[in-house]
TrEMBL record:
Species annotation: Streptomyces labedae
Pfam families per UniProt: Ald_Xan_dh_C, MoCoBD_1, MoCoBD_2
Keyword Oxidoreductase annotated: yes
UniProt cross-references to Gene3D superfamilies, sorted A to Z: Aldehyde oxidase/xanthine dehydrogenase, a/b hammerhead, Aldehyde oxidase/xanthine dehydrogenase, molybdopterin binding domain
InterPro entries per the UniProt record, alphabetical: Ald_Oxase/Xan_DH_a/b, Ald_Oxase/Xan_DH_a/b_sf, Ald_Oxase/xanthine_DH-like, AldOxase/xan_DH_MoCoBD1, AldOxase/xan_DH_MoCoBD2, AldOxase/xan_DH_Mopterin-bd_sf
Keywords noted in UniProt: Molybdenum, Oxidoreductase
The Aldehyde oxidase/xanthine dehydrogenase a/b hammerhead domain, residue ranges: 26-135
Bilayer-crossing regions: none
Protein name: Xanthine dehydrogenase family protein molybdopterin-binding subunit
């Protein structure tokens, strides 16, 4: 029917510009804090200045009487709230301001509502709090911390790991650490809540409007139909918008009390303690190999931190079980409960940390064996999923390795440490492999064709800058045989068909399958209408005999036997026809294939001035198997952006927690280091492979894979240049001197 059924069609849209670009560049795209409601008032939050203990007293009287103040709510006056529901991402964070306990620094302990944001912030500064401090657990290796064993049930073991190490000629056994990182989307997270009786309209910086709707229904004990959540533009997320956070709930709570629309914009420092962060990790990796370069055993044990009374999904070690063909492997994840702000997913959660340890350790094995790191990876290539024992639904990692190496010029690498130089610069070449997990969950979409010949397609998804608007417009145009400008794709409204989160690199795939199905069902609707229609050249045609093209449907074997959608609607007196699509993820056991996520190979050149400790990333080549690519331009931008995120993780980002107080010591853009343009080199992106076999549209998701592998590849390149093996992120100057 459409070119999507053609498995050789790898890219369906090469360089389509973002359909929402004019809106964004002219300021017509409205982000949550661009909305203004009549009578709207403004909120400000007060955060705890201790990390553990109790509030002994809280005196809001000065704040109450400050100019413009409508209300101050603390745990003493807050209504009782339910905790949010279990979600696809695990349990919701605890309900805010329900008692006097302090579990982390920055915990919201009061919300002030005033006529203006300035008045609200001023009043918030007048609130006097006395604490009864407790002992704060802040160190991931604090022996007093509660340890959660195998919290997601993802620990794996296959083969006999002990026997595998006994067979090894060399064993690498090392410890790696990664710090807390903070997502820091550019848009300050904003909530606007406006109640009408027991119904509420919410504008929110969320990656998942339906999650806000379901959560609000539970938290405020109102019907889901009474909650409408709008997020047509988000302002970035990087995972920070996946959960329903305390500030969103408190804004709605305050708006209900003052019976006015309330807007809350988090400050940048509050963004460090209110909307999640990538939790730190301590990892031990042990890898055994024969002198011939065969892996005999892998053991990866990881611990990451989690907040008190919260859950966060961060299986750091799990990915190591499926990255290589190794007969004996064990992975093992633990969490340490600390008095820290709730962590959450941050771009490539878990993989970003786990891959750093695994791919650095693989490089260490290569050096121990005197083997080329690329050769070692190719020699232990997992042709099938080692845990499921099933063939992958697609895997072009070998091609990524070879094509990437060729483009990068890996063959020019001389293996001896410090053997490549350019004047004062030591040059290092490093690489890493990436196996990113498959993640798609159920998703729905609706497609309509209107009397004017245009299509309208919707789903309550979000576009966090990734290109959802654009690729879904393209896809619907492709499926319905319409010009791009005849299709409008809309998202970001919880009244639209159910969509999962923009997260886990899974939205494009899940939504593409739903849009494809909705469009297919819409074509069937048209064929149903003309089934007995003597005036239609399509009379009695079955969907599989028909092609959609040029705004019409025609018999595939006879292009002149067809008619325009509009002619069918006209003749039958219809304004429009609509159809739904619901995608469900394939079950590996049923399809007999391990559903594959994206794969990638990263090649990096670094330049180091050993006297100054200067580290520069000079070149990056990313070869990525992302399945079918819906739009080469936006997909490539995703990989480029992810690569920048990976350079940032490797060299810059570290959220610093004060060991005494739990205060985030660098919670501003001035103090929290991120790369600027001068830190970012030429980056090349190459797509390998073709459509994945497990789903109709065959995309695999490219939102996160681009970040993964960068830290290890840079670390491996540093080792090649200097002989130093850096096992602790970020790689800072002091580690290079
Ligand atoms: Mo992504 S961290 O799943 O938004």
């Amino acid at each position: 029917m459409t070119t999507l059924e053609d498995p050789t069609r790898t890219v369906i849209g090469e360089g389509v510009d973002r359909v929402d670009a004019p809106l964004k560049t002219t300021g017509a795209a409205h982000y949550p804090n661009d909305y203004i409601y009549p009578g709207m008032v403004h909120a400000a939050l007060v955060g705890s200045t201790i990390a553990a203990g109790r509030i002994r007293s809280i005196d809001a009287s000065d704040a109450q009487h400050a100019p413009g103040v409508l209300t101050v709510i603390t745990h003493l006056t807050a209504p009782q709230l339910e905790r949010g529901p279990m979600t696809l991402l695990g349990p919701s964070p605890p309900a805010p301001m329900q008692d006097d306990r302090i579990l982390h620094y920055g915990q919201h302990i009061a919300i002030v509502v005033a006529d203006s944001p300035e008045q609200a912030r001023h009043a918030a500064s007048l609130i006097k709090v006395e604490y009864e401090p407790g002992e704060a657990l802040l160190d991931i290796e604090d022996p007093r911390a509660e340890i959660l064993e195998n919290p997601w049930g993802l620990d794996t073991e296959h083969g006999d790991v002990t026997a595998g190490f006994a067979q090894a000629d060399i064993v690498v056994d090392e410890r790696y650490t990664t710090p807390d990182n903070t997502n820091n989307p550019l848009g300050l997270f904003t909530t606007i809540a406006s109640w009408h009786g027991d119904s509420v309209t919410v504008h929110d910086s969320t990656q998942w409007p339906h999650n806000v709707r379901t959560s609000f229904a539970r938290i405020f004990r109102i019907p889901e139909s009474g909650v409408r959540v709008l997020a047509p533009f988000v302002g970035g997320g990087f995972g920070a918008g996946l959960r329903v956070w305390s500030h969103t709930i408190l804004t709605a709570m305050a708006a209900r009390e003052v019976k006015r629309p309330v807007k809350l914009v988090l400050t940048r420092p509050q963004m460090f303690t209110s909307v999640g962060h990538r939790p730190n990790s301590v990892q031990h990796i042990k890898i055994g190999a024969t002198s011939g370069g065969r892996l005999t055993a892998i053991e990866h044990r990881a611990i990451s931190s989690v907040a008190m009374e919260d859950d966060d999904y961060e299986p750091v070690a799990a990915g190591s079980a499926v990255a290589y063909e190794c007969p004996n492997a064990r992975t093992h994840d633990r969490q340490a409960r600390l008095n820290i702000p709730c962590p959450g997913s941050m771009r490539a959660p878990a993989e970003g940390q786990g891959n750093f340890a695994l791919e650095s350790a693989i490089d260490e094995v290569a050096y121990a064996l005197g083997m080329d790191p690329l050769e070692l990876r190719l020699s232990n290539y997992a042709e099938q999923n080692p845990v499921l024992g099933l063939p992958w639904s697609s895997k072009a990692l070998r091609e990524c390795y070879t094509v990437g190496a060729e483009r990068f010029g890996w063959a020019r690498r001389t293996p001896e440490i410090g053997s490549m130089r350019d004047g004062n610069w030591l040059i290092g070449y490093g690489m890493a492999g990436v196996s990113y997990p498959f993640y798609q969950v159920p998703c729905q979409a609706r497609a309509s064709l209107r009397r004017d010949g245009s299509a309208y397609v919707t789903s309550a998804a979000t576009d966090i800058g990734t290109g959802t608007y654009t690729v879904m417009t393209q896809l619907a145009a492709e499926c319905l045989g319409l010009d791009l400008n005849r299709v409008r794709f809309d998202l970001g409204d919880s009244d639209m068909p159910y969509s999962p989160q923009a997260g886990g690199s899974g939205l494009t795939g899940a939504l593409a399958n739903a849009v494809h199905m909705a469009c297919g069902n819409l074509v069937k609707e048209f064929l149903d209408i003309v089934r007995d229609d003597d005036a239609s050249p399509l009379r009695g045609a079955a969907a599989q005999e028909v092609t959609a093209s040029g705004g019409r449907l025609h018999r595939t074997d006879a292009p002149d036997q067809g008619e325009a959608y509009t002619d069918i609607l006209d003749r039958h007196g219809l304004e429009e026809l609509s159809a739904d699509g619901r995608s469900t993820p394939p079950d590996p056991q049923k399809i007999g294939m391990a559903t594959a996520g994206a794969f990638g190979a990263k090649f990096v050149e670094v330049r180091i001035d050993p006297q100054l400790g200067l580290l520069r990333v000079a070149r990056v080549v990313s070869a990525i198997d992302g399945g079918r690519i819906l739009n080469e331009k936006t997909a490539s931008s995703q990989i480029t952006g992810g690569t920048v995120g990976g350079i940032s993780q490797a060299m810059f980002e570290e959220t610093a927690t004060d060991a005494g107080t739990g205060r985030i010591a660098n919670a501003t853009f001035g103090d929290y280091l991120m790369p600027v343009n001068a830190d970012i080199p030429d980056m090349e992106v190459i797509f390998c492979g073709g459509p994945d076999r497990a789903t109709t549209v065959g995309t695999k998701g490219v939102g996160e894979v681009g970040l993964v592998g960068m830290a290890a590849a840079i670390g491996n390149a540093i080792h090649h240049a200097t002989g130093r093996r850096l096992r602790s992120l970020p790689f800072t100057i002091d580690q290079l001197l």
